[in-house]
Design a protein that fits this description.
Elements: H1 9-23, H2 31-34, H3 38-57, H4 59-64, H5 70-76, E1 114-122, H6 129-137, E2 144-145, H7 153-156, E3 171-172, H8 190-194, H9 198-213, E4 227-231, H10 237-243, H11 252-256, H12 260-269, E5 275-278, H13 284-297, E6 304-310, H14 316-323, E7 348-356, H15 357-362, E8 369-378, H16 390-404, E9 413-415, H17 424-439, E10 450-453, H18 456-459, H19 466-480, E11 482-483, E12 503-505, E13 510-511, E14 526-532, E15 537-544, E16 562-568, H20 571-587, H21 595-604, E17 611-617, H22 620-631, E18 640-644, H23 645-655, H24 660-669, H25 673-680
Length: 701
């Protein structure tokens, strides 16, 4: 193997240039990752450059060239060539066991798409998805100097080649509020919370948010077979506690174990599906998505929450990655660029809620997009433990396409792994080119129709959460029908040859124009997302935009008003909830047509907590006015009701009796919503779905 001679990325580049100069070849260094042994490389050269070599070496080539068997030729062929696999014949079946009639040829069944019904996340310089999209759309670089709240980079700064435990890397992408957590909200003591790895805290917070984003109250999941699959690992936080002299307690171990993160969620919400941490380095969160898809398709769980969380709290990995030559000294991830010199590390958390499409449609869920297929593999014996294998990458993508039953000509965007390394990026592109050509089964592919990008150029490499960050980016591009620019690639890496290929690098914001089939019909937008782990674990997911059927909208009138409800555990949090709702309807440009959907989602998609507020309104302007009056601390606001369970429980006890259900039915039949609302804000438990019995149900949004 070439690695046994001591070759690395730099010397392989020199080796390629030497061979090119001496023999008039056109090799790129990526070829050594496809053919990592001298034998494999020799066969490749004989196959691809026989004429060129024969002119220079004369009879030597013909005299020494081995007779290549079918097997060795197949091994030497590029990934895009068709390869026929012969299976051993099965033993003959005794006559008496033959079926009465010959079986029909097996027809592959297309697996049901998986719907993404909820999304939540926080990324460098973006506390929510709206900020994240604004940063992506504007081409913003969200990298900065490592803050003192992580570690003192100046104390570690130095020449890693000459000094022990020094790094010349001082940049990273970090998220705000990494230390903020509301332990009592989750029933955890503040002392135990302080001993919990920040990844566990972020996981609990953003799982709660993704359930709400899907339009569900977390309590509605209790007792279900919902699965939890999360890319997570120890961050080094327990080491910081030890350095700080914190005493070891009974909860210290649970605070440090990565498996406890998803397990805490399953415990908190009483979920009975699989509850697993996934740690395959940079591919962790995309492998988590793949595992969840497989679990739903094999009946292990009916729905799943998946994602990844990555925090930078300890400098040890930073120093190690610097010495390994993986990180960019100037703190910029320059994917596909001639100036590519490594990646920059980043923090983030992203969560998705998944459900089989038919179930999501039946439940009236909002759908961000569909997962058509996914695949996972390993690079096997590559050039080194951490070196990529383009053949394995190509096989992975082809497998995902085959599972999704997707024609590569219908895929118009790839969110690449794209770490911004001089040879890693060209190797990935070679794998993509081979995979697309192989999936096309010999048919010619159009050129320049599929965009390439990498979110790492905006926020850095989120490692454990990198794959889910790429999925969130694609979902936002679906929503806005826009391809956002991949940064820092004015001049393309000379080892990346896109001429005659389906690909182009998205270097400026542009409309995502839908492709059309041969009959001129518009196709749904499709994309692929790749993640490759440093240890060789690869994952790819095929996504498609969702085009919803038009549903009847619920019309709100003064005679048929709606009830908008909000609640929190404290008055100050309730005020924040009101502020968020007002900001949302303004930012999203909501109209009266959205009012019923807003009301319904807040009714059925949120926990009813101790401090409550309700508005009976018939227009959006009326709702905004009442909420603004509440924030201004106005008294006696018509149509706005407030209550606190602890304070009002005695009053509620006097008003509620065994005939309450019949009384409520009578109120509903007469449209007396205000009487119902007066009791709800005092603590009445009420199933809001009863408002819509026999009528058109609004949508979860």
């Amino acid at each position: 193997e070439l690695s046994e001679f001591g070759f690395d990325s730099i010397t392989l580049t020199t080796f390629a240039n030497t061979l090119n100069g001496q023999y008039g070849l056109a090799l790129t260094p990526t070829i050594f990752f496809e053919y990592p042994t001298l034998a494999g490389l020799s066969e490749h050269l004989l196959h691809e450059y026989r004429t060129v070599l024969a002119k220079q070496l004369g009879d030597t080539v013909r005299a020494t060239a081995p007779e290549l068997s079918d097997a060795s030729v197949s091994a030497a062929l590029p990934m895009g060539r068709s390869q026929r696999v012969r299976f051993p014949q099965a033993p003959a079946v005794p006559p008496e066991r033959h079926a009465a009639a010959p079986a029909a040829a097996a027809v592959p069944v297309k697996p049901e798409p998986i719907a993404i019904i909820g999304v939540s996340g926080a990324f460098p310089q973006a506390e929510d998805l709206e900020d994240f999209w604004a940063n992506l759309a504007s081409g913003r670089d969200c990298i900065g100097e490592i803050p003192g709240s992580r570690w003192d980079w100046s104390r570690l700064y130095g020449d890693p080649a000459k000094e022990v435990n020094k790094t010349n890397i001082r940049h990273a992408g970090v998220i705000d509020g990494i230390a903020e957590f509301d332990p009592l909200f989750f029933g955890i003591s503040p002392r135990e919370a302080a001993a919990m790895d920040p990844q566990q805290r972020l996981l609990m917070t953003y799982v709660w948010r993704v359930i709400e984003d899907a339009g569900y109250a977390p309590a509605q999941l209790s007792g279900t077979d919902t699965g939890i699959f999360v890319g997570t690992a120890g961050s080094g936080y327990s080491g910081l506690l030890a350095q700080a002299g914190e005493p070891i307690e009974g909860y210290s171990s649970t605070g440090a174990l990565s498996s406890i993160g998803p397990n805490r969620v399953s415990f908190l919400l009483n979920l009975h599906g699989p509850s697993e941490p996934i740690e395959t380095a940079c591919s962790s969160s995309l492998v988590a998505v793949h595992r969840a898809v497989q679990a739903m398709r094999t009946g292990q769980c009916g729905q799943a929450i998946v994602g990844g969380v990555n925090t930078l709290v300890s400098p040890e990995a930073h120093v190690s990655f610097t010495k390994a030559g993986m990180l960019s000294p100037d703190g910029r991830c320059k994917t596909f660029s001639k100036e590519a010199n490594g990646y920059v590390r980043g923090e983030g958390v992203g969560m998705l809620m998944l459900k089989p499409l038919s179930k999501a449609q039946a439940d009236g869920d909002h759908i961000y997009g569909l997962i058509l297929g996914s695949a996972e593999n390993h690079g096997g014996r590559a050039n080194s433990l951490t070196a990529p294998n383009p053949k394995a990458q190509a096989a992975l993508i082809r497998s995902a396409f085959e599972q999704a039953q997707v024609d590569p000509r219908s895929v118009s965007y790839i969110e690449a792994h794209g770490t911004g390394t001089p040879l890693g990026d060209p190797i990935e592109i070679q794998g993509l080119k081979s995979a697309f050509q192989a999936a096309a089964q010999g048919e010619a592919l159009p050129t320049g129709y599929c965009g390439l990008g990498s979110v790492k150029t905006n926020i850095g490499h989120l490692e454990l959460a990198a794959g889910v960050a790429g999925i969130v980016k694609v979902l936002l591009q679906f929503k806005h029908r826009t391809l956002v620019p991949s940064l820092h690639a004015k001049e393309i890496n000379p080892y990346i040859d896109l001429s005659g290929s389906p690909f182009y690098v998205v270097q400026e914001s542009r409309e995502w124009v839908a492709l059309r089939d041969d009959a001129g019909r518009e196709l749904p937008r499709r994309a692929g997302v790749s993640s490759f782990g440093i240890g060789g674990v690869n994952a790819h997911v095929v996504l498609q935009e969702y085009r919803s059927d038009d549903r009847a909208r619920v019309v709100v009138t003064p005679q048929r008003p709606v009830v908008v409800v909000l609640s929190a555990k404290q008055e100050v949090r309730l005020r924040e909830a009101v502020q968020r709702l007002l900001a949302h309807v303004e930012r999203q440009g909501c109209t009266d047509e959205d009012l019923a959907d807003i009301a319904y989602t807040l009714q059925v998609g949120r926990e009813a907590m101790e401090v409550r507020l309700a508005c009976v309104v018939s227009t959006l302007e009326e709702l905004k006015a009442k909420l603004a009056q509440y924030l201004a601390e106005a008294k006696d606001i018509d149509g706005l009701y407030r209550g606190e369970i602890k304070r009002d429980k005695e009053t509620l006890a006097l008003l509620v009796d065994e005939d309450m259900d019949r009384t409520i039915d009578a109120w509903l039949s007469k449209g007396k919503l205000r009487k119902l609302v007066e009791l709800w804000v005092r603590g009445l438990a009420f199933d809001w779905a009863r408002l819509y019995d026999g009528e058109v149900t609004p949508r979860r949004i």
